[in-house]
Each structure stands twice: as C-alpha cells, then as structure tokens.
Amino acid sequence: MDQNLERFLRYIKIDTQSNDESLASPSEAKELDLTRLLQKELKEMGIENEIDEYGRLYAHLAGVEGLDAIGLNAHVDTATEISGKDVKPQLIENYDGGVIRLNDEYKMSPNEFDTLKGHEGDTLVVTSGDTLLGGDDKAGVAVIMSVLDYLTSHKEVKHHPLSILFTPDEEIGRGPEHFDAKKFGADYAYTIDGDYPDHIDIENFNAAHAEVTFYGVGIHPGEAKGKMVNAISLGEEFDRLLDPNARPEFTSGHEGFNHCCSFEGSAGKATLYYIIRNHDASLLEKQKEEMIKAKEILEKKYPTAKIELEIGDDYRNMKEIIDKDPRALEHAKAVFKKLGIEPKHLPVRGGTDGATFSFKGCPTPNLGTGSYNHHGRFEFLSVRDFNKMIEIVIELVKA
Q: pTM of this prediction?
C-alpha cells in the first residue's frame, strides 16, 4: 500500500472529535493524541516544532533564503454531527461507478451523491456506515505530512521556507483562536481543507449570529383572552417576519441566508438562535436590520411583552484581503497552470480558518484534499485526488 495512504489511514483511526460545549483549548484532550503523533513524526523528519499551551502545533522547515515563506494549515479535529470513534475504513479498489454498500443499512449511489461521479477506476476509502471517515481534515493533515516527508527525503529539491500549523477545534469555529501570526511566520498561506483538487477557494461567507429572547405575559389559560402573550407564538411570528426565501434550503451560490438553529422555551420565555450569512457584507447588514425591524414591529404590536435581541459578528469574507494582497492566489494559479489544471473559484458556503488568518495578517486561500461528503457517514476519500493534492502542494512550495 502507498505510504501516503497508510499515513491517512493511521490518522483517521485516532478519535479527535471536538466539543462545542467545552471552553477548554483544545476543547477535547483527545485531539492532542493526533497532534502529539504529528509532533513525533515531524521530529523524526528533523523538522523543528512546538505545541503551544492551546494545542496548536507550529513547525518550520528552512528553505531557499529570500523566497516567500509559505504557510500550510490543516485541522486535527473532526465534526460533531456523527462519531469519529472506532473508524473502520473500507477500501473500494477499481470503483465501478455503481452503488457502494457501506453496511446492511447504508449505501452510497452516484444518483444521490454527485461527488462519486467521475471516480470510475479510482480507489476509494469509505466508512463502515457507523462513523464519519475523518477526511475533513485528516486528509489535509496527511497531504501536508506527505509533502514534508517528500521534501526531507529529497534534500536536492529546493523549496520555499515553510511554516506549518495544525489546529484543533476548527469544526466548532475556534480553530483561529490564539493564532499567532508572528510565530507562524508565513508571508501567505493555504488551508488544505477543501475537496476537489482543482478548486482554489478565495471567498467565504461574512458571518454573524443572533439570539432573540421573548418574554411573554402569563396568565391562567382559562382567563387568557386579550391578556396572555405566548412567548412561543412570538418567536414563530418573529421568524415569519424575516424573508421566507432567505433560508439555507432555498439558497445557493452567493445567496445569503438566515438559519434558525434552535428554538427553545415555553409560553413564558422562548429563545431563537440564528446564524446569519452572506458573501456581501452590505447585504449581511441588511439582514441584521431586518431582524431589528421585526423586533420593533412585535414590540409595537405586543407592548406588554419583552423582547431582547443580541447580534454579534463571527468572521468576514477573506476575498476582501485576497483582493488587496493576491500573492497567494497568483502563486497558486501559476502552479495550477504549470500542472495543466484550470482552477475553479467557487464561493465557500461556510467559513474557513483561512478567513481569520487573512484578517490577522496572513492571506490564506483554501485548497482541496481529495475527500468528499464531509461531516457524515457518507464521507469518502479519492486516493487519486488525494495523491493529486500532494503533487499540487509539492509544486506549490518548490523554489
């Protein structure tokens, strides 16, 4: 078996699921199980590195003096939607393009998962149907480690100075916490955390969140006419005042949305939590204003009720920075051209650690990994695309 694939299979068997209810950093100590393994492997390659007090692993490999220092980042944690414990990968060699049976209950069909199309003859790594695979982002971790292994085994290959960063807690939005741009030391960087090898992601959502709490007016239901104000009903009415088409299930591409993630409470008190997303910062502000207006309408209609609205910003669209400093993009485009790849630039309908890194002084587009269908039991790795990503990143860092 190819040593790069062996490396990936070794990493995915380590449970590193992050925990969005923990305030620790990393949120789960088990994330360090993989981080410490990476530290050991880096030391065996002769690469200087350190794990800081927050579980971030920084490493540096000297290169040709005078060239830009290029950063590479991937995250060690896996998503919270489904377990990453006891991952039992299955290899589908020479995939025939048909249905893949994961177990007696779950199967994958290209009619349902477009990502399977075009992989005929490829070797795929799939799940047992009981867990996720962990390709997000252990495929990215394995790509970076494979590149470093190649460079340290082929010392005749001249390359840029490299800055490496492996982060915990990306899946719960805390990967960029405690990011130290000075310690990282990159002029620009790339997160290896996407899917398709021909993608260069340069724009993501601007992101905000909103929490709306409704305090109703309680009274015995037998005497409630004209007096009771039900907090649950207030919450439902608030949601109906927002643009009904601006919901995730009705949007795509550059279209933004308001997503009600949770609705909890009782007739006396109810709380709605929203995430607010838009690639256009000015449109995001209009979405916030729409929520403020909805609150004002309800306050006027129900003067005896109380409504609290808290809106906060989360992250911004990295395109704002990359447009001003396109070095990372232009360098990647030149490498893709050299390799005969026509790059695609699709809007990321989510966030990326690279967005925050960009606003902290290190422009950081996102590249693929060769893994697909992230965050669930239908995740899979294309060995062909994974190896292609290793080739791309090697060319990306060559002098």
A: 0.92
